[in-house]
């Protein structure tokens, strides 16, 4: 265990993979899919009280049964019984307050999600003071918390979709940040195999390709670096896409045999909440920042993006369609839809097929312009 990050306590809840619950290493019965969704919601909102109505709307995707209060009560009782069987104080760990709200009162160290977030925060702190070796260790520890796809096996719902999309992106950014550090530390040769596997798994994610190309060029394999550039171009061409300006500049540097800038800049979005807000509370309140300095608040009515003057966000860019994209708010989830644009919509370098969920820290590319998703400062 890396210094500074506490190991799991007696309770260990897992949501970064199949939903599981352990006490002192012994698995507890969690119940069926809906009970697992409920446990996941409680973990995401740990130490925050959730009303029965809000919990039910999340579990049943906005359409709870008339008897949802009794249903929730029974599911909570099942989880408490599992805790009691392991000699854990069930009513204080999974408590109900005087208003009938439910709360899972566990430490961050008692769930893989909390440990992942703490390790990433520690990595960023180490990076900020120049301790890149320690930062790399923390990133590795964060990645090790994953045991599969987030909420693996749970039925699709608004909550499950939003959480999985958000955490998948956070996991990917953590991997990329660690790779940046490895390359910057002179260990480019050690990550080439890993990057080849990652680009095969995510063939349209330009950040990974840029890292692979950089690693190959750094160790003197100039021909292989250019071949990787051609491979990426071919992958994108099959989808009707072209490389970003960043990739084009990287290729030109390699063709001219120029030195590359230090890649150790950390690609993680610094959007860690410090005000106690929960995931469900933050998804529906975001701002879009256009790289030209304009700022737009996403409202419940949503907004349109395109070159035409009748759009809420007008982008005067030749590669942007007249009616290019639409941002919609669906309950607690903010999504962006491609309106059959000519050049596509990209979120974090991945082309949107139909629609994609948005969370703070995401970068949207439309035509030649980039929009960043942020939370309000206050």
UniProtKB/TrEMBL annotation:
Residues 303-352 form the FHA domain. It comes from the Bacteria. InterPro entries: AfsR-DnrI-RedD_regulator (IPR051677), BTAD (IPR005158), FHA_dom (IPR000253), Sig_transdc_resp-reg_C-effctor (IPR016032), SMAD_FHA_dom_sf (IPR008984), TPR-like_helical_dom_sf (IPR011990), WH-like_DNA-bd_sf (IPR036388). The keyword Lipid biosynthesis does not apply. GO terms for molecular function: DNA binding. Keywords: DNA-binding, Phosphoprotein, Transcription, Transcription regulation. GO terms for biological process: regulation of DNA-templated transcription. It holds the Pfam family BTAD. SMART domains: BTAD, FHA. PANTHER family: TRANSCRIPTIONAL REGULATOR REDD, TRANSCRIPTIONAL REGULATOR REDD-RELATED. This is DNA-binding SARP family transcriptional activator. The lineage of its organism: Bacteria, Bacillati, Actinomycetota, Actinomycetes, Mycobacteriales.
């Amino acid at each position: 265990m890396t210094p500074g990050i506490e190991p799991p306590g007696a309770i260990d809840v897992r949501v970064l993979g199949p939903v599981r619950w352990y006490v002192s290493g012994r698995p507890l019965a969690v119940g069926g899919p809906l009970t697992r969704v409920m446990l996941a919601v409680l973990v995401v909102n740990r130490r925050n009280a959730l009303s029965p109505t809000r919990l039910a709307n999340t579990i049943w995707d906005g359409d709870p049964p008339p008897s949802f209060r009794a249903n929730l009560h029974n599911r909570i009782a099942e989880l408490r019984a599992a805790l009691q069987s392991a000699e854990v104080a069930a009513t204080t760990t999974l408590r109900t307050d005087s208003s009938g709200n439910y709360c899972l009162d566990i430490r961050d160290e008692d769930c893989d999600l909390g440990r992942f977030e703490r390790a990433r925060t520690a990595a960023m702190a180490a990076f900020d003071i120049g301790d890149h070796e320690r930062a790399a260790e923390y990133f590795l520890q964060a990645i090790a918390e994953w045991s599969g796809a987030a909420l693996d096996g749970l039925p699709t719902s608004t909550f499950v979709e939003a959480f999985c999309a958000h955490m998948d992106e956070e996991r990917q950014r953590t991997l990329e940040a660690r790779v940046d550090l490895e390359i910057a530390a002179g260990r480019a040769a050690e990550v080439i195999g890993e990057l080849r596997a990652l680009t095969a798994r995510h063939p349209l994610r330009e950040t990974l390709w840029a890292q692979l190309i950089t690693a190959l060029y750094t160790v003197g394999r100039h021909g292989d670096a250019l071949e990787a550039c051609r491979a990426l171009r071919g992958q994108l061409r099959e989808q009707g896409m072209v490389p970003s300006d960043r990739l084009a500049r990287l290729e030109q540097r390699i063709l001219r045999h120029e030195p590359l800038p230090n890649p150790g800049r950390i690609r993680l979005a610094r959007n860690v909440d410090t005000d106690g807000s929960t995931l469900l509370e933050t998804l529906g309140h975001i701002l879009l920042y256009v790289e030209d300095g304009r700022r737009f608040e996403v409202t419940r009515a949503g907004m349109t993006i395109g070159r035409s003057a009748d759009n809420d966000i007008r982008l005067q860019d030749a590669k942007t369609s007249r009616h290019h994209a639409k941002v919609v708010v669906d309950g607690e989830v903010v999504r962006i839809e491609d309106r059959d644009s000519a050049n596509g919509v990209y979120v974090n370098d991945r082309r949107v097929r139909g629609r994609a969920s948005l969370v703070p820290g995401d970068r949207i590319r439309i035509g030649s312009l980039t929009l960043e998703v942020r939370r309000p400062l206050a």
